[in-house]
Structure formats: structure tokens, C-alpha cells
Amino acid sequence: MANSDYVRHNDSPAVRKMEKNKALRQIIILAVILGIVLVTTTYLLHPIFPDQYILYFHVGEVAVTGFFVIQILSSITYRLMLLHSEQTAKSMKSLVRIAGAIVVIAFIISYLSQDPVIAASISTIAGLVIGFSASNIISNVIAGMYLAIARPFSIDDRIKVFGEVGVVHDIGMLYTRLGLENGDEMLASNSSMVTSTVILKKEVEYDGTAQRDAATA
User: What does CATH list as the number for 158-215?
Assistant: First the structure.
């Protein structure tokens, strides 16, 4: 079914309510299953394995359940936002997945922190990761904001950068996605797009013939 047909079929309050209720039922079922599995593994495995291993079992169960919950929420978000535009739907789907993953990871870390040794290890590793990656992430986020506000190029513009010619498909929080002429897709960090020379490729009519001409960045 095409996207336009899907939108027409689902552009009604009754259908949207049904989609939300379906997602809610699936999440409740997953929560009940998770609770049953947690209780079962606690009582059945406790006499066999040490408490530390039981903790790992619980973390695995929470991670698997969280994965399915994220998939359900991202899918329902995509279907609902598709009523507005496909690009918005894709962006919101990615946002829900990222936010959901952050919540699940934070929950797992807090759960693992019950063990002092693991808590100390997590703190050390987290400090190192944040120290090395925060600067790059922040610079890409700021560069993405600059690209969105200053608009040196826009989505669907045809540009040349890094020796490649392609069409701008998306300007995200961290990366700019380009569709190259050979069919490949290139993900370029926003900071590199700001600091690199970008050539805008424009259509120029000359003697009735469409020719490609390069404009300044």
C-alpha cells in the first residue's frame, strides 16, 4: 500500500485511537510477561546461581523487553506522524528509538549499580566515554543548528562536497545524509559540512538547453 493510500485510510480519529489502544495493549502484555519472568527467574534460579548472576539475568530480560517496547512505540509514532509527512514520521521514529534506548540504558545502569564493583566500573567507563565523545557530539549538534538556521543549503538541494555530487536528503542532529549519483548514501558529520567547501549545483537555462553550473558555496 502506498503512503498516500495509507494516509487516506488512517486519517480518522477512530483509526488513530485503535492504533494507540493496540500499542497500549502490546506494552501492557510485555510488562506482564516481564514481571512473570522476573519473579520466575528469581525464585527458580536463586537456589542454583549466585545473586550476581541473577542480576545479569534480570538485566537481559529488561533489555529484551525494552527493545520490543521501543519497536512498538517507534512504529505507532511513525504511523501516526505519517499523516503529516513521511520525513517528519521518519524523524520522530528515530527520535523515539534514541530516547527509548537512553531510558533503557539508564535503567540498566541504575539496576547494575546495586553491585559496588560494577557501579565503580560503570562510573569509570562512563567518565572516559563522555570525556572523549562529548566534544565531538556538542560540536556536531551546534553545527546542525547552524545548518538549520543559516541554511547554506537545504533538503533536496544538489551539492558537491568531499569530491562527491549528491542530493541532500536530511540534515539531522549529528549528520547530514546525502544521496550520491551512483546510488550510494553518504553520512557526513555536521561539523565537517560547516568547515568544508560546499558547491551548490544549480540548473541554468542557456539557449533552451538545461546545463549544470556550479554556484559559490
Answer: 2.30.30
Kindly give, in sequence order, each residue whose CB lies less than 8 Å from that of residue 17, ignoring residues fewer than 6 positions away: none
Q: Is 197 helix (H, G, I), strand (E, B) or coil?
A: coil
Task: State the chain's maximal CA–CA distance in angstroms.
Answer: 86
178 close to 185: Cβ distance less than 8 angstroms: yes
| 213 strand-pairing partners | 202
Provide the residue ranges of all domains of the chain, joining segments of one domain with +: 3-114, 158-215
pTM of the model: 0.48
pLDDT digits (tens, 9 = 90+) for 133-161: 666 777 888 888 888 788 888 878 888 88
Rounded-to-integer distance, Cα 94 and Cα 147, Å: 20
CB 112 within 8 A of CB 59: yes
Taken in order 122, 125, 127, 132, is the CA torsion positive or negative? negative
